[in-house]
Amino acid sequence: MTQRLPCKISNALLLKVILAVFLIFFNCIVGKSQNKEEKLLARLLTTFPFDLLSGGVIIVHAQLADFPDTLNFILDTGSGGISLDSALVEDLQLKITPSERMLRGIGSMRKVSYIVDKTLHLPGLDVPHLDFHINDYELLTSVYGVRVDGIIGFSFFKQFIVKVDYDKSLVEVWTTGQIKYPKNGYLLKPALSFIPVLDAFVSDGGDCTSRFYFDTGAGLCLLMSEDFERDSSILIKGKRVIHTQAEGLGGKTPMKLTTVKLLKFGKYTFKNVPAHIFQDDFKVTSYPYLGGLIGNDLLRRFNLVINYAEREIHLRPNIHFKERFDYSYSGLGIYYVNGSVVIEDVLKDSPGEKAGLKPGDVILAIDNAFNAGIQGYKDMLQHVGGRFKVLVMRNQVPLVFTLKVKSFL
To answer: How far apart are CA 388 and CA 227, in angstroms?
Structure first.
């Protein structure tokens, strides 16, 4: 027979035990709540200016590791990592780490090597432990007339909330966490692996909703693959299409240029949008998963809050929202080469060819504007209907030609 022992615990002691357990539980809940609140509140880290190039491409200035020189980087949501120019890597004698990873770009696909574990010094912010892949940006440098030392993409965006203000030409970098988005905008919820993907509705001869890259590094409005354009029957049958070219990671790439009547994403609708069409030989868009990309000549019309941690991008129309699209067509491929602005390409039957301009001509002035630089000359030639006197040097002989810029609309 088992004998029960009398309970000796007093009511006062029992009350103390219950109170202690309650206090421990309460402190845990409050502590977790406070920690959670601290993690959720985003904090401004730095603000710095940026330069805007033709097509809406953003250039920010930074330094690499212990090297004192200021470098130029394109801020690019269309990049799945972060990169350095091959010429810069050679100049700085950086150690290269090969890899078996393949890099796909418009017009090329190749194995990529890396510069590993380096710190990027942005104004007011150091970003350590970055692995930069290596690419050749000589062509981009000649396109913009500004040395392109690298591209800042996913490796940076994934760590922060990034605000891009085109009204003030400023970038803000915040810690990840809870943030209040501006009023009178729209919050996109893009799919995100390395590059954000959004749904957009395109209409011309036909209607189609498809997925497109959100690409701030592309200096155009809309890019569609030929497969997408053909299978969706987007364009009106017999619509005017101009043969042109664009520049990408693989060099100069043949493209077709036209417009679509309507492009809509979020709550925003644009009409008569310039559209480039290309043959996607290297499956950059992985059609039919994607139809193409929306570039920064359109996206620059919004101030952006890019929040990869929450898979959110906030759009708010800015002062550029209602600007007319660029429908100009000269047929000239103008590049900055060895300190001169050179016409390298003149497309067949284009206004440039009809004016008498030829590849190799060095532009000295347009309408008495000497030394305007490649950005200045490109801006001048965006005036549809404009008739310009172009002074060039050809075989050591100065010549003047009259160029009339046409519209492809």
So the answer is: 38
